[in-house]
Amino acid sequence: MELRAKDRQTVQEFEATVASFEEVVEFRRMYGRPDYFIRVAVADAAAFEAFLMDKLKGLPVDLRLESHLTMKEIKPRP
């Protein structure tokens, strides 16, 4: 995800808000693009869409989102 606002206050508020979402299980600020990596745990594609529309797209910031859904877990992380 890319955050177009770069002022410190907006970034801090954005990070605190996203980190507070119960669906978020991993949240990282990245070097380069994208600005952020976010991993969420939801029940299904409909729940993922609801998370995007109700929470992320509802934030008062300009975001560019790119999402990927797991088709099949081949080897789980330890």
Automatic annotation (TrEMBL):
Listed Pfam families: AsnC_trans_reg
InterPro entries: Dimeric_a/b-barrel, Tscrpt_reg_AsnC/Lrp_C
Gene3D superfamilies xref list: 3.30.70.920
Source taxon at top rank: Bacteria
Domain Transcription regulator AsnC/Lrp ligand binding: 3-73
Coiled-coil features, chain-numbered ranges: none
Protein name in UniProt: Transcription regulator AsnC/Lrp ligand binding domain-containing protein
Organism: Streptomyces avermitilis
